[in-house]
Amino acid sequence: MADLSELKEKAAQIKEELRQKAESLDSSKSAYEVRKEFLDSKKGRIGLLMQDMRSVPSEQKAEYGKTVNELKVWAAQRFEEIDAKMKERELESRYKSEKIDVSMPAVKIAHGNLHPVTQVREELIDVFAGMGFEVYEGTEIENDYYNFTALNTPKDHPARDMQDTFYLSPEFLLRTQTSSGQIHVMEKKKPPIKILSPGKVFRSDDDATYSPMFSQMEGLVVDKKITLSDLKGMLDVFVKKIYGEETVTRLRPSYFPFTEPSVEVDCSCFACGGKGCPLCKGTGWIEVLGAGVVNRKVLENCGIDSDEYSGLAFGIGLERIAMLKYGINNIKLLLESDIQVLNQIGDQE
Ligand code: PHE
After folding, report:
1. pLDDT tens, per residue, the chain with 349 residues
2. Are 155 and 257 in contact (CB under 8 A)?
3. Judging by beta carbons within 10 Å of its beta carbon (0-12, 13-18, 19+), is residue 170 exposed, middle or buried?
4. How many helices (H) and strands (E) would you count in the chain?
5. How far apart are CA 145 and CA 175, in angstroms?
6. Of ligand 1's atoms, which has the minimum distance to the CA of residue 220?
7. Domain coordinates of the chain in residue numbers?
8. Distance from the CA of 257 to the center of ligand 1, in angstroms?
9. Candidate of 124, 151, 174, 179 to mutate for ligand 1, largest count of ligand atoms within 8 Å of Cβ
10. What phi and psi, each to the nearest 5 degrees, are found at residue 198?
11. Is 226 left (phi over 0), alpha (psi -120 to 50) or beta?
């Protein structure tokens, strides 16, 4: 049997309890749970009081209902206040944790950069343009004549074996060397000639230092009284510009059918200054290109008087220069264009 005085006691008790619980609340989620505990219409503490109404004497029913209702309104208001407080607190802590520190250094935006081989190519063009060279770009598909025969390498010449060729037909092939450009230029232009011919070349080689496709930069100078010392002088300038002022060159005898004499050009190791290190395999020297004095037969094949004119030629492997410059030991790393590898190379710039 419920009655009014008992209800008033309970109401006071509920209010006290609610005040106490409110003190310890720390999130809107826990506030929601406590709200349910008190105000749920079926199972809530206040809701249950309403159910007791049945056993209240009828003359007290109106007053009883009013009291429970007041308690309900009071509790609902408290919870609204609590909820607002919790939300404010939560927002504050969110602001704190998400605060933007305007003094933090900005995130670096990554810029793209030219491929290392393109960089080397442009650098070389710059160096040789400074010496008066013009750029001539030949074609990647050549015929046998320009790639071999005119370069004093007729069919059955043993030097053809030096370059494993991709033939497209008995006559056409993928050029194995940019030297084919020498012939095109000398056929079209009368001396003095000073050209640089960069481009892709193709050979059926495949290992750590060779790939079936790589890039070369051909140089050709034809004029009166051109000698091997002009070649050495130009290449000295080239290695100093690319690898540093202290770098020097040395020429070693070699053989190419289209140059006579022919040389391999080494530069002093820029990593150890010539003392010997892993890069130069302990020799102090690094091979950088093949070159020579243009064979008279080649000049004559192009209708140039070899008594009046002489020439020099050189062929530089661009990937090789880039590998040395960036300390890369496998040509594939340059050609696969893996963005992580390229980024590392870019960082060294
Ligand atoms: N064409 C030669 C090669 O690919 C390099 C070279 C060019 C040598 C010019 C001498 C003169 O190996």
Report:
1. 578 888 888 888 988 988 898 888 888 888 888 898 888 878 888 888 888 888 888 888 888 888 889 989 999 999 999 999 999 998 998 888 888 888 989 888 877 788 889 999 999 999 999 999 999 999 999 999 999 999 999 998 888 877 789 999 999 999 999 999 999 999 999 999 999 999 999 998 777 667 899 999 999 999 999 999 999 999 999 999 988 899 999 999 999 999 999 999 999 988 888 898 888 889 999 888 999 999 999 999 999 999 999 999 999 999 989 888 888 878 888 888 788 887 777 654 4
2. no
3. exposed
4. 12, 9
5. 11
6. 9
7. 4-97, 116-348
8. 9
9. 179
10. -90, 150
11. beta
CB-defined site of ligand 1, < 6 Å:
177, 179, 218, 256, 259, 290-292, 313-315
Q: Are 194 and 132 in contact (CB under 8 A)?
A: yes
Ligand 1: centre distance to CA 107 (Å) = 47
Residue nearest ligand 1's atom 7 by CA: 315
- Residue 328 CA to ligand 1 centre (angstroms): 23
Q: Using alpha carbons, select from 213, 138, 142 the residue that is nearest to residue 171.
A: 142
* Closest approach atom of ligand 1 to CA 291: 10
Q: How far apart are CA 335 and CA 226, in angstroms?
A: 36
Cα separation, 198 vs 137, whole angstroms: 6
Q: Which CATH architecture has domain 116-348?
A: 2-Layer Sandwich (3.30)
Residue with CA at minimum distance from ligand 1 atom 4: 177
What pTM was estimated for this model as a whole? Answer: 0.69
Which protein residue has the closest C-alpha to ligand 1 atom 9?
Answer: 314
